[in-house]
Amino acid sequence: MPSRQDQLQEDTYFRVMRLLQEDPGMTQREMARRLGVSLGGINYCLQALVDKGWVKIQNFQRSPRKMAYAYLLTPSGLASKAALTARFLQRKMQEFEALKAEIQSLQNEA
User: Fold this and answer.
1) What angle do CA 45, 28, 11 make, to 5 degrees?
2) pLDDT in tens, the chain (110 residues)
3) d(CA 31, CA 19)
4) How many other C-beta atoms are found inside a 10 Å radius of the C-beta of residue 3?
5) I want to staple 58 with a disulfide (CB 3.0 to 4.6 A). Which of 7, 53, 70, 110 is the partner?
């Protein structure tokens, strides 16, 4: 069973990849803001995804904004995102069931 830290890292990978699939041109600053993660954390996560071969970075050198990048999911990244999605959904369903049981227990006490 993966550690809590491994699960949090996997959740961050999933959430970042989900954002990138929606908007490959999203800036790291915007990703950080939307996910509630530090800019350094997003940069670290993106580098890890690139190292895994799941994300490819393209630089638009002719862009008036010289810092314009696109983060593209690779074919292996898309496959990995599907697996991450399944595990994420499974964990969230378990959390949901645990919360339902706790709520029912509290309602029975009251």
Assistant:
1) 40
2) 678 888 889 999 999 999 999 998 899 999 999 999 999 999 999 999 999 999 999 876 665 655 678 899 999 999 999 999 999 999 999 999 999 999 999 999 98
3) 7
4) 8
5) 70
Q: Which residue in the block uniquely carries the two structure tokens 């961050």?
A: 12
SS3 state at 54: coil
* Cα separation, 79 vs 71, whole angstroms: 16
What's the pTM value of the predicted model, to 2 decimals?
0.80
The 8-class DSSP code of residue 16 comes to: H
Return the H-helix or E-strand segment holding 92: helix 75-109
Strand partners, 72: 56
